[in-house]
Design a protein that fits this description.
There is one protein chain. With 167 residues, the protein is an alpha+beta fold. The protein has four helices and six strands, in the order H-H-E-E-E-H-E-E-E-H. Helix 1 runs antiparallel to helix 2 and helix 1 packs parallel to helix 4. The termini are far apart. The mean pLDDT is 96. Bound molecules: methionine sulfoxide (SME). The site of methionine sulfoxide (SME) has 13 residues, from helix 3 and strand 6.
């Protein structure tokens, strides 16, 4: 019997928790999260982080750890793309059909839907988790919950590291 999306989401969440216990740094955790989501969730074909470049003016999102094909978009200003929209609004953006969204910056011809979830540290956006799918409308509400959970864990790790660095 095929494993349901809910079962896969449950497994991915457990793996994320395990990784959170095992990863020694926020950076290691972020690298691992891209692998967990790409491996467990079969429709998550490109999984990566864009992080706000510290001190950049104008603000710039810079490609971080990712799984999937190399993208031409390694640096994205906040007024561009689905990525820019999520980072500037501080809200999760789900696009069921990227061909119908004029904001979309093409990364692969195969991409059909996309989700971008902001990562917060002390209430401020510091980056985002971006996932592309080769399937239309791949991100249901339970997927959003999983991806937002992972982005929240990343924010907590980054915040903890900043606190340790300043103490
Ligand atoms: N599609 C994104 C650009 C990043 S790639 O998908 C990896 C956007 O519209 O912002």
């Amino acid at each position: 019997m095929a494993i349901s999306n809910f079962q896969k989401i449950d497994e991915a969440r457990k793996e994320a928790d395990l990784l959170n216990n095992e990863a020694r740094t926020a950076d290691q955790f972020m690298a691992g999260i891209t692998q967990v989501l790409n491996k467990h969730m079969l429709k998550y074909n490109w999984v990566g982080f864009y992080m706000l470049e510290p001190g950049a003016n104008p603000p710039m999102l810079v490609l971080g750890h990712f799984q999937g094909a190399m993208t031409p978009h390694t640096r994205i200003p906040l007024h561009q793309g689905i990525c820019g929209a999520a980072a500037s609004s501080g809200k999760t953006v789900v696009v069921d059909d990227v061909r119908k969204d004029p904001r979309y910056l093409a990364c692969s011809l195969e991409t059909k839907s996309e989700i971008v979830v902001p990562v917060f540290v002390r209430g401020k956006v510091v980056g985002e988790l971006d996932i592309d799918s080769h399937f239309l409308a791949a991100f249901a509400s339970e997927d959003c919950e999983l991806i937002e959970y992972c982005a929240e864990l990343v924010g907590q790790r980054l915040q903890k590291e900043q606190k340790e660095g300043s103490s």
